[in-house]
Amino acid sequence: MGYKVKLKTFEGPFDLLVYLIESARMDIYDIKVSEITEQYMEHLQRMQELDVQPASEFMVLAANLIEIKSKMLLPRLDEKGEEIESEDPRSGLVERLLEYRRYKRAAELFSQMEDQGAMVESKPQEDISAFLDDPEEILQLDTDQLINAFEAFLGRRKKVSEIRKNYENVQKRKITSEERVSFIKMLFRQQPDAVYSFRETVKDSQDKYDIALSFTSIMEMVKQRQVRAEQKALFGDIKVAKGERFDQEEENNDK
């Protein structure tokens, strides 16, 4: 079965792989590795033809696909030449793809929540006690008092009009996951051997979006083994330390 792959920008190798699987309408639990590997390699070739150098993680996944393909083509045999039943070589890839899709859907949900939050309108707090004191007045006034009362009424009406015009739209600047990852890396550059509390990676502990952004950023860094995270008790604090690939990632960035 053939299909065309439209060249576009992908966030990473698994983004490309999920796109290929969905385009081919394959069951993620029954991936036709041979077809997907050919399409994946074809896409990398197109990137090179357009003078776009694929990142190292694209090449690593390509090697994994080729290895899985070879294992499926060459069944394992015992000493008697009989085929040995073994674990499906695609199982590890399927688990990683399912994990990637969960994170991607969570990121899309957070993005929608952020857009909804940006549409919230508020107004600055005003002191309206002057308009609430003595709401009922008995008009037993002479002419001068009546004039003064009318002028006070006009002043109050003008003040209310100014308050109604004083609304503001709360438009929050979108903070990206890359910015939060950079902030966490900066903490470890300052103290490489430190073990930070999750709360220390959150800039605004009152902002639910900021908390969620730090959590998803740390999960992505854990996945790439740039940091290690540990939670000893349910709902307990999360401790974050440098991972085995943190310095390697820093060296790659310096190059």
TrEMBL record:
Top-level lineage group: Bacteria
Keyword Cell inner membrane: no
Gene3D superfamilies: 6.10.250.2410
Location of this chain's protein in the cell: Cytoplasm
Pfam entry (one): SMC_ScpA
Keywords from the UniProt entry: Cell cycle, Cell division, Chromosome partition, Cytoplasm
Major localisation: cytoplasm
Record-stated family: Belongs to the ScpA family.
Stated role: Participates in chromosomal partition during cell division. May act via the formation of a condensin-like complex containing Smc and ScpB that pull DNA away from mid-cell into both cell halves.
PANTHER family registered for this protein in UniProt: SEGREGATION AND CONDENSATION PROTEIN A
Quaternary structure and partners: Component of a cohesin-like complex composed of ScpA, ScpB and the Smc homodimer, in which ScpA and ScpB bind to the head domain of Smc. The presence of the three proteins is required for the association of the complex with DNA.
Protein name stated in the entry: Segregation and condensation protein A
Organism lineage: Bacteria, Bacillati, Bacillota, Clostridia, Eubacteriales
